[in-house]
Design brief:
Chains A, B: Forms a ring-shaped head-to-tail homodimer around DNA. Chains A, B: Keywords: Cytoplasm, DNA replication, DNA-binding, DNA-directed DNA polymerase, Nucleotidyltransferase, Transferase. Chains A, B: GO terms for molecular function: 3'-5' exonuclease activity; DNA binding; DNA-directed DNA polymerase activity. Chains A, B: It comes from Pullulanibacillus pueri. The structure is a homodimer. Chain A is α+β, with helices and mostly antiparallel strands. Chain A has 3 domains: 119 residues, DNA Polymerase III, Chain A, domain 2; 118 residues, Roll (DNA Polymerase III, Chain A, domain 2), CATH 3.10.150; 116 residues, DNA Polymerase III, Chain A, domain 2 (Roll), CATH 3.10.150. Chain A is 17% helix and 44% strand. Chain A has 6 helices and 28 strands. In chain A, strands 16-13-14-15-28-27-26-20-24 form a 9-stranded antiparallel β-sheet. An 8-stranded antiparallel β-sheet of chain A has the order 8-2-3-4-19-18-17-12. In chain A, strands 7-1-9-10-11 form a 5-stranded antiparallel β-sheet. In chain A, strand 3 and strand 4 form a beta hairpin. The first copy, chain A, is elongated and about 80 Å long. Chains A and B meet through helix 2, strand 11, helix 5 and strand 23 of A and helix 2, strand 11, helix 5 and strand 23 of B.
């Protein structure tokens, strides 16, 4: 195996696939990056038990030759050293290998690296080319950003640690919940896929990081156990979570006593200040109250530190002019942070009923937060 | 006690004094910031057992009124909450206190904070106004930056964890060493102070952080146990380390067999690459060798990972054209990083003799690094 490659292209590909390589692993082979040289391309792969990332470098990029393959082949190199090394090489990298060693040369710098056993490296899953959707990268980014934070961080109920994607009647619905709060986002999209599957949050965060705004269209392919996101030379494979995702549609069909229209940014800032004094062991309790029939009082209290309260204007109020509820301030902050619209509609059904938070004029995004006992 | 203050001025002062406030402390009072309101100023103090920082806000800053004191007084507030809170307040802060509580109001936001007992707060040391030096902030910055990294990180020999300042014949000499490497920087400066004292590295790093480039002149005051750095409204007090600092002047009077003039940046990059493969438990060993009578070979080897070697040009060579030495690559990197000059003179006295590293054309800065057995 022998090739010469532009160091920046190699560096970028190593960066991408390294996202899937753990810094510690029971199987040493998974600490490696697999490099496959073919006549017309170089492919790098990094993987762990949940996710695999593949990055392909063609011979030419933007009309410039970036790769020349003299002899095809494949090998596995330790990701950490390869990444640190290539970052610090000044120019083109000339890689050449025999059975047990590989030499990398750049300018007057020569390195010899021990290789890992390429035979041990796991194969990537094969994806049928029937079950495929095309989605704009910006849309996928929004779907992920507005749902993934609401997934559970606890492994006790594994299915809730992912985001559920379901396709029905040309609508994709993404839902995440930790059973105390929920975020749901829909998108109208033509699709031949039907049904529902749940993707681990960590995988979606990788997709969001690597494919954020960089490409116009992402192709999503599916098998029973695996999903792949592909764009340009980059593919992110993820296992799917097993189990049935709870049906959440009934949770959103509620009646509300009081509906407030508020300024999203002001409300976020007010909640942010109030959570300063809301101690962690008390679920970051923040209290909301309507005072003088027309204003919102946001407050929190800690016997140890002190109290904080502030009054905010309400842009519009529908229903009962009374309200007194305690919410987890951290949940409210995270909910408001992903709302891009300037105005937010907050609907209350009583002090023990979940609160519905929606951007005004965008029915595609709905969030629920359960109140806490104050 | 009552005053109204510009929130940005208050925020800046809290930031400065908070540097001295630990996040945990045996004495709860040291988790607080002391605030003293006088007719014409507001003073904030943060401290721990090693360092105290005082920041003073006058009534006017840049022709603008920033402070109005209605009633003088003093109190102590928990640093963490005060800092988090003031950062998030939208405008002027109105602070008012009674015996056990203080209220802070900004716009429609009202907070009440529990106060700590002001009587418990330790007093700042008094500095005699005889023992004083004036130094340019840029000079002090250079002195600190070029020495402090070489101090010992181990508490086993406490005096070596500081930087020794000694004044003699209008020359200030700063030295730091961990007994394996040493950095010495001199500065010509008129001074009425004589003698030598050792300042904890952590205190110097605070001074460097807070007074870096911001002010033109820093005043240094001394007592037997304390040093203070003062500039504009800011004072940093530090305890001095007890004990006698070792005499290092004889270490620098050596004979050398080979002297090389090298490009500082290229050498730094080469050493940086070579340390990639130099495992930590082997002291980051990097080998230097003269090859073909004219070039420098930089290499390192790890049986686990592989080898790296590169050849660099030597700008000038004096003395024996042979050299083979192993050095701690991390020490060499740190030494080269603080050299601003483009060319560096490296002098070798044999494979077991310390290496002298100096910038070309600047006799004020000298560094020694002991070799390691290869």
């Amino acid at each position: 195996m022998e090739f010469i490659i532009n160091n920046q292209c190699l560096n970028q590909a190593i960066y991408e696939v390294s996202q899937a390589v753990a810094s510690k692993a029971i199987l040493p082979i998974l600490l490696g990056v697999k490099i496959i040289a073919e006549k017309d391309r170089l492919t790098l792969i990094g993987s762990n038990t949940n996710i695999a990332i593949e990055s392909m470098i063609p011979l030419m990029v933007g009309g410039q030759e970036v790769l020349k393959v003299m002899e095809p082949g494949s090998l596995v190199l330790p990701a950490k050293y390869l990444s640190d090394l290539v970052k610090k090489l000044p120019g083109e990298v000339h890689l050449k290998s025999d059975a047990h060693r590989v030499t990398l040369q750049s300018d007057t710098i020569k390195t010899a690296l021990n290789v890992l056993n390429v035979e041990e490296y796991p194969n990537l899953p094969e994806i049928e080319h029937k079950k495929i959707i095309h989605i704009k990268s910006r849309d996928l980014s929004t779907l992920i950003k507005q749902t993934v934070f609401a997934a559970s961080k606890r492994e006790s109920n594994p299915i809730l640690t992912g985001v559920n994607f379901s396709f029905q009647d040309n609508t994709l619905t993404c839902v995440a919940t930790n059973s105390h709060r929920l975020s749901l986002r829909t998108l109208t999209i033509p699709s031949e896929i039907k049904g529902s599957f749940t993707i681990p949050s960590a995988s979606l965060l990788e997709v969001h990081k690597l494919m954020h705004d960089e490409v116009d269209e992402i192709l999503i392919g599916l098998t029973d156990h695996t999903i792949v996101f592909q764009a340009k030379g980059l593919s992110v494979y993820s296992r799917l979570l097993e189990g049935t995702y709870p049906n959440v549609s009934s949770l959103l069909l509620r009646e509300f006593k009081t509906v407030l229209i508020l300024n999203t940014e002001n409300l976020l800032k007010g909640i942010d200040r109030a959570t300063l004094f809301a101690s962690e062991w008390k679920n970051h309790n923040v209290n909301l109250e309507i005072i003088e029939d027309s204003q919102l009082l946001i407050s929190s209290h800690s016997s140890e530190i002190g109290t904080i309260e502030e009054v905010q204007d309400i842009d519009q109020m529908i229903g009962e002019r009374s309200l007194c509820i305690s919410l987890d301030g951290a949940y409210v902050k995270e909910a408001l942070k992903v709302i891009e619209e300037k105005a937010v509609k907050v609907s209350f059904g009583g002090s023990m009923s979940p609160v519905l938070i929606e951007p005004v004029d965008n029915p595609a995004h709905k969030q629920l937060i359960s109140p806490v006992r104050s």
